[in-house]
Amino acid sequence: MESTVSAAGLDIRRFGHDDLPQIRQTIIDLHATAAGSDRDDFKKKFPWFVDHWGGNPAFACVIAYDGDEAVGFAYGAPAAEGREWWREHLDEAPKEAVTFSYSELAVHPKLRKQGVADALSRALLEERPEDLAVLLVDVKHPRVQALYEGWGFRKVGERQPFPDSPLYAVMLADLPLSS
């Protein structure tokens, strides 16, 4: 079900699992534009990830529009309770540990460094009922990691989820995010 929020001078619309057929290609195309020539191998795999996450009945997505043009998105879904894989990186897990898995964020290159990533992240996570949010950031991108740290995420470990994937920083944040 689509709903709208205004942020960063953009129209940020909320979508769920049932909306995936209408937004799938928009997400894939915007991801390809945002990734540019980097990550060509992942761009080929990305539709599988969209379908995987979008197949979750609790899938949540926000897309930022500048007029009619999609210029950014963020999505994820709740983790299965009791199967929070990030726990292996902590000596002691928090007592309140229901987790939202923040899977993907992309912003069109022409709108980077204008607060769009922040607006999308906050729109995605602001009304989540979960206690925590978890995400992965390529360890070769310390500026991206610093961006998430500015929103209250902290690195708790490192993980390589697939043999052909990069090494990622595992980042965890309490919800709601800090201001």
TrEMBL record:
Membrane-crossing ranges are: none
Enzyme Commission number(s) of this protein = 2.3.-.-
* Superkingdom classification of source: Bacteria
Keyword Acyltransferase assigned:
yes
Q: Name one GO molecular function term.
A: acyltransferase activity
List the InterPro entries hit by this protein, alphabetically.
Answer: Acyl_CoA_acyltransferase, GNAT_dom
* Domain N-acetyltransferase, residue spans: 10-174
Q: Which CDD domains does its entry note?
A: NAT_SF
Keywords, ordered alphabetically: Acyltransferase, Transferase
**Protein name from the UniProt record:** GNAT family N-acetyltransferase
Origin organism is Streptomyces kaempferi
